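User: What would this chain look like folded?
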Amino acid sequence: MRHALFLMMFTVGCSSSSLTESVAELEQRAASVNDCCEIDDRSLGREDHLVRLGSRVVLIHDWVKTDGEYTGFSMTVSEGKAMSYLIKLGSQTLSGNRTLYATDGRSIARINFCGECDSPDGCEDGGEGDPPGEGGGGDDDGGGSDPACPGGDCPTEGGTGPVLL
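Assistant: Here's the prediction, encoded as C-alpha coordinates.
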Protein backbone atom coordinates (compact mmCIF):
# COMPACT_ATOMS: atom_id res chain seq x y z
CA MET A 1 0.00 0.00 0.00
CA ARG A 2 2.76 2.44 0.97
CA HIS A 3 4.61 1.70 -2.30
CA ALA A 4 1.50 2.30 -4.39
CA LEU A 5 0.89 5.65 -2.69
CA PHE A 6 4.51 6.71 -3.28
CA LEU A 7 4.31 5.67 -6.93
CA MET A 8 1.07 7.61 -7.40
CA MET A 9 2.54 10.75 -5.78
CA PHE A 10 5.74 10.40 -7.84
CA THR A 11 3.78 10.07 -11.08
CA VAL A 12 1.62 13.11 -10.36
CA GLY A 13 4.66 15.16 -9.35
CA CYS A 14 6.56 14.32 -12.52
CA SER A 15 3.73 14.93 -14.94
CA SER A 16 2.41 18.23 -13.58
CA SER A 17 5.23 20.41 -14.92
CA SER A 18 4.37 19.63 -18.55
CA LEU A 19 0.81 20.76 -17.93
CA THR A 20 1.79 24.37 -17.26
CA GLU A 21 4.17 25.24 -20.08
CA SER A 22 3.96 28.78 -21.42
CA VAL A 23 3.28 29.76 -25.01
CA ALA A 24 7.00 30.56 -25.45
CA GLU A 25 8.06 27.17 -24.04
CA LEU A 26 5.71 25.28 -26.35
CA GLU A 27 6.81 27.37 -29.35
CA GLN A 28 10.41 26.46 -28.48
CA ARG A 29 9.53 22.73 -28.44
CA ALA A 30 7.68 22.89 -31.76
CA ALA A 31 9.20 21.10 -34.74
CA SER A 32 6.52 22.48 -37.09
CA VAL A 33 3.67 25.00 -36.99
CA ASN A 34 0.21 24.51 -38.45
CA ASP A 35 -1.17 26.91 -41.07
CA CYS A 36 -4.72 26.72 -39.74
CA CYS A 37 -6.73 25.98 -36.62
CA GLU A 38 -7.31 22.50 -38.03
CA ILE A 39 -4.92 19.57 -38.47
CA ASP A 40 -5.70 17.65 -41.65
CA ASP A 41 -4.17 14.62 -43.34
CA ARG A 42 -1.10 16.63 -44.42
CA SER A 43 -0.13 17.24 -40.78
CA LEU A 44 -1.36 14.11 -39.02
CA GLY A 45 1.51 12.34 -37.32
CA ARG A 46 3.84 15.33 -37.10
CA GLU A 47 5.51 15.18 -33.72
CA ASP A 48 5.66 18.37 -31.66
CA HIS A 49 3.29 20.10 -34.07
CA LEU A 50 2.10 23.53 -32.88
CA VAL A 51 -1.36 24.99 -33.50
CA ARG A 52 -1.74 28.72 -32.71
CA LEU A 53 -5.16 29.79 -31.46
CA GLY A 54 -4.71 33.44 -30.56
CA SER A 55 -3.59 33.80 -26.94
CA ARG A 56 -3.14 30.02 -26.56
CA VAL A 57 -1.24 27.34 -28.40
CA VAL A 58 -1.61 23.57 -28.55
CA LEU A 59 1.34 21.23 -29.09
CA ILE A 60 0.37 17.84 -30.55
CA HIS A 61 2.78 14.99 -29.79
CA ASP A 62 3.07 11.26 -29.03
CA TRP A 63 0.92 10.09 -31.92
CA VAL A 64 -0.43 6.54 -31.69
CA LYS A 65 -0.24 4.56 -34.92
CA THR A 66 -2.21 1.34 -35.39
CA ASP A 67 -2.02 -0.69 -38.59
CA GLY A 68 -0.52 2.31 -40.41
CA GLU A 69 -3.27 4.73 -39.33
CA TYR A 70 -3.20 7.42 -36.63
CA THR A 71 -5.60 6.45 -33.85
CA GLY A 72 -4.50 8.66 -30.96
CA PHE A 73 -2.38 11.57 -29.78
CA SER A 74 -1.39 13.65 -26.79
CA MET A 75 -1.56 17.41 -26.57
CA THR A 76 -0.17 20.07 -24.29
CA VAL A 77 -2.09 23.35 -24.04
CA SER A 78 -0.28 26.53 -23.03
CA GLU A 79 -0.61 27.41 -19.35
CA GLY A 80 -2.45 24.13 -18.75
CA LYS A 81 -5.73 25.64 -19.94
CA ALA A 82 -8.73 23.61 -21.06
CA MET A 83 -9.16 22.92 -24.77
CA SER A 84 -12.03 21.46 -26.80
CA TYR A 85 -11.79 20.07 -30.31
CA LEU A 86 -13.60 18.06 -32.94
CA ILE A 87 -12.18 14.78 -34.27
CA LYS A 88 -13.19 13.50 -37.69
CA LEU A 89 -13.18 9.69 -37.89
CA GLY A 90 -14.29 8.64 -41.36
CA SER A 91 -17.76 10.14 -41.82
CA GLN A 92 -18.32 10.67 -38.08
CA THR A 93 -17.31 13.80 -36.11
CA LEU A 94 -16.84 13.53 -32.35
CA SER A 95 -16.00 16.15 -29.74
CA GLY A 96 -13.12 15.84 -27.32
CA ASN A 97 -11.44 17.78 -24.55
CA ARG A 98 -8.83 15.42 -23.10
CA THR A 99 -5.08 15.85 -23.38
CA LEU A 100 -4.76 12.15 -24.27
CA TYR A 101 -7.07 10.99 -27.05
CA ALA A 102 -7.45 7.49 -28.45
CA THR A 103 -10.09 6.22 -30.84
CA ASP A 104 -11.69 2.80 -30.78
CA GLY A 105 -9.29 1.79 -33.56
CA ARG A 106 -10.71 4.04 -36.26
CA SER A 107 -8.36 6.33 -38.13
CA ILE A 108 -8.22 10.06 -37.31
CA ALA A 109 -8.82 12.09 -40.47
CA ARG A 110 -8.83 15.60 -38.96
CA ILE A 111 -8.60 17.51 -35.67
CA ASN A 112 -10.42 20.85 -35.55
CA PHE A 113 -9.57 23.48 -32.90
CA CYS A 114 -11.25 26.38 -34.77
CA GLY A 115 -13.93 26.91 -32.13
CA GLU A 116 -11.17 27.67 -29.59
CA CYS A 117 -9.54 30.51 -31.56
CA ASP A 118 -9.72 33.74 -29.51
CA SER A 119 -7.87 35.98 -31.97
CA PRO A 120 -9.98 38.82 -33.41
CA ASP A 121 -8.11 38.32 -36.70
CA GLY A 122 -8.82 34.58 -36.82
CA CYS A 123 -6.31 31.77 -36.72
CA GLU A 124 -5.75 31.13 -40.40
CA ASP A 125 -2.13 32.36 -40.56
CA GLY A 126 -0.63 30.18 -37.84
CA GLY A 127 2.17 28.97 -40.13
CA GLU A 128 4.04 32.25 -40.47
CA GLY A 129 6.68 31.21 -37.95
CA ASP A 130 7.50 27.79 -39.38
CA PRO A 131 11.08 26.66 -38.93
CA PRO A 132 13.01 26.50 -42.22
CA GLY A 133 11.97 23.54 -44.32
CA GLU A 134 8.79 23.03 -42.30
CA GLY A 135 5.30 24.16 -43.00
CA GLY A 136 1.72 23.66 -42.23
CA GLY A 137 0.91 21.71 -45.33
CA GLY A 138 1.98 23.46 -48.49
CA ASP A 139 0.17 25.41 -51.15
CA ASP A 140 -3.51 25.60 -51.89
CA ASP A 141 -4.50 22.84 -54.26
CA GLY A 142 -6.61 25.25 -56.30
CA GLY A 143 -9.74 23.25 -55.56
CA GLY A 144 -11.74 26.31 -54.53
CA SER A 145 -11.70 25.61 -50.81
CA ASP A 146 -10.30 28.03 -48.26
CA PRO A 147 -6.60 27.10 -47.85
CA ALA A 148 -6.84 27.99 -44.17
CA CYS A 149 -9.54 25.37 -43.64
CA PRO A 150 -8.94 22.38 -45.94
CA GLY A 151 -12.18 20.73 -46.89
CA GLY A 152 -14.18 23.79 -45.83
CA ASP A 153 -14.98 22.34 -42.39
CA CYS A 154 -13.75 25.25 -40.26
CA PRO A 155 -16.27 27.60 -38.66
CA THR A 156 -16.64 31.01 -40.23
CA GLU A 157 -16.47 34.46 -38.63
CA GLY A 158 -20.25 34.69 -38.74
CA GLY A 159 -20.51 32.08 -36.02
CA THR A 160 -21.66 29.15 -38.17
CA GLY A 161 -19.98 25.81 -37.87
CA PRO A 162 -19.49 23.48 -34.95
CA VAL A 163 -19.90 24.75 -31.43
CA LEU A 164 -17.37 23.36 -28.97
CA LEU A 165 -18.21 23.10 -25.30
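Strands lie at 32-33, 38-39, 49-52, 57-66, 69-77, 85-89, 92-96, 100-102, 110-112. If you want, I can go into more detail on any region.
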